[in-house]
Prior knowledge:
Blueprint: H1 3-15, H2 19-28, H3 30-35, H4 42-57, H5 64-79, H6 82-89, H7 101-106, H8 109-118, H9 123-127
Amino acid sequence: MEFRQLILSINGAVDALEYATARRFIEENFDIVYEYRHLLNSNAREILEFVKEKMQSGEEPLTKKELNAITVINTYAKRMDIRGLKLFLSEKGKEKIFEKKDAFEILSSDAKILLASLGFIKNKELVK
């Protein structure tokens, strides 16, 4: 993709409030976008700075599968469906979601309280 088209796509995505799309474009073409950052609108530049900070800190972004799992956890917590929440979290690999710091930022307060009371997360992790 040519840099002009890329910049137009990012600015268009930000204008359409499709921040995830803009972030994906920026992450996939970081070097090119950073070189031509002066052509980005202000919101796109903020996303670029956010991505830059995340890349420098070495944190892995949440995958789509992990984001979907967090959405399911929030839904169970909102409905107070403890049985469903336990069943969902009993699946293999679900405990790895809580190893990432970004996961706690997305969890609802209801989900955090339920997960702490069920022993899936520690109260200390909620404070971070």
